[in-house]
Design goal:
This protein is an all-alpha fold. The protein is built from 24 helices and no strands. Helix 7 (96-105) packs parallel to helix 10, helix 11 crosses helix 12 (168-177) and helix 15 (221-233) packs across helix 16 (241-251). The two termini are 51 Å apart. This is Mitochondrial transcription termination factor family protein. Belongs to the mTERF family. One of its GO terms (molecular function) is nucleic acid binding. Keywords: Transcription, Transcription regulation, Transcription termination, Transit peptide.
């Protein structure tokens, strides 16, 4: 029986090789036939849809069969409408990968009238300042936008957020950061904004949260209240921006994830007070992955000989890129020290790491004119090695 099921699954997953009659037999004899084909759709429709999804939309046979079997999928026997939909996407700069992603989530879009259902939405987004590339990226990330009414949902939602953020430009920026912004329920957003105001968070900081982590404003209000209380207990001032940064970080992780990162820091010698203290200085140190934390600690403690407690006082360093900043700049710093070109009392590695790329190249490399070519070569070599 198992052998038969496997054989039938293989044949069904490659319908282009199977005649409609044979395909119909396999579907009917398959133990999950009721979910693979509805009474309203003929085997020809089902087979044709699967072949089209594979040939024209880039799906594997297995994925195409899965989509075609879904209750949310459509069945068709002609390519007219699907071809016009694909042509519309391609004309407006959507890549093959983006189109495939959209159809995987919103397969029914293949049977819409693109001039009425797709084009007006794309034109609306571009009229607000989004480039065709921005629109393609946003829609492919949140295909549900195509299923929403332009007049009844998208435009009112855009106007709602433009009112909250006080400009269309800011709303567009927020849409670029979070593609599903216009899909958020306004009642949830409004309730959570009121909660933040009651906690003493300023409007400017509320806008920061809305732009940086809008999905957090749709979470359960009691859960958000718990996060706010936790941040207050840690000693953050709700009137300061660091308060909402801490909220942003805590809302983005589960309690278990927080506890795991606490254990990683403790492994490197930090006490509970060190962890909370570092979080208060730079909350994003807890947003770093466990791998990132271990990598930074290993480099500074085991290779550079630093005390881990120093990093607790300079936690921003942990969030810096090990490959693009820490390793190459440390190599240049060590070279400058060994050549006697600088002394630790003149400039520390921690300070050097804080420089912007322009500051680093100007203050360190250009000041050592004779050594600059060699130092620059060393800098680039270490950046390449660290990748």
């Amino acid at each position: 029986m198992l052998k038969f099921i496997r054989k039938s699954l293989y044949l069904v997953s490659a319908p282009a090789r199977v005649s409609p009659l044979r395909y119909h037999y396999l579907i009917q004899s398959h133990p999950f036939s009721s979910s693979l084909e509805s009474p309203n759709n003929s085997p020809n429709q089902h087979s044709f849809t699967v072949r089209y999804l594979v040939k024209s939309c880039g799906f594997t046979p297995e994925k195409a069969l899965s989509l075609s079997a879904s209750k949310y999928c459509v069945k068709f026997e002609a390519t007219g409408k699907p071809d016009s939909v694909l042509a519309c996407f391609k004309k407006h700069g959507f890549t093959k990968t983006q189109i495939t992603r959209i159809i995987a989530k919103q397969t029914r879009v293949l049977l819409c009238n693109p001039d009425k259902s797709i084009l007006p939405k794309l034109e609306f987004f571009m009229s607000k300042g989004l480039s065709s590339g921005d629109v393609a990226k946003m829609v492919s990330a949140s295909p549900l936008l195509l299923a929403r009414s332009l007049e009844k949902w998208i435009i009112p939602s855009f106007n709602f957020f433009s009112s909250l953020l006080r400009s269309e430009e800011t709303t567009v920026s927020a849409m670029k950061l979070y593609s599903g912004l216009l899909l958020l329920k306004q009642t949830h957003v409004t309730a959570n904004i009121e909660l933040l105001r009651e906690a003493g968070v300023s409007n400017s900081n509320i806008m920061f949260l809305l732009k940086s982590q809008p999905i957090g404003l749709t979470r359960d209000i009691e859960w958000n209240r718990t996060v706010l209380d936790e941040v207050k207990k840690m000693g953050f001032d709700s009137s300061k921006k660091m308060f909402v940064v801490a909220v942003h970080v805590l809302r983005a992780m589960t309690k278990l994830t927080w506890e795991k990162k606490v254990e990683v820091y403790k492994k490197w010698g930090w006490a509970d007070d060190d962890i909370i203290g570092a979080f208060k200085i730079y909350p994003m140190c807890m947003a770093a992955s466990e791998k990132k934390i271990n990598g930074a600690m290993d480099f500074f403690v085991n290779q550079m000989g630093w005390e881990s407690s120093f990093l607790a006082r300079k936690p921003i360093i942990i969030a810096m890129s090990l490959q693009n900043r820490i390793v190459p700049r440390s190599a240049v710093y060590q070279a400058l020290l060994s050549k006697g070109l600088i002394e630790t009392k003149d400039i520390s590695l921690a300070t050097l790491l804080h420089f912007s790329e322009m500051q680093f190249l100007k203050k360190v490399l250009s000041y050592q004119k004779e050594e600059a070519p060699e130092l620059l070569k060393l800098y680039k070599e270490n950046m390449d090695l660290a990748k």
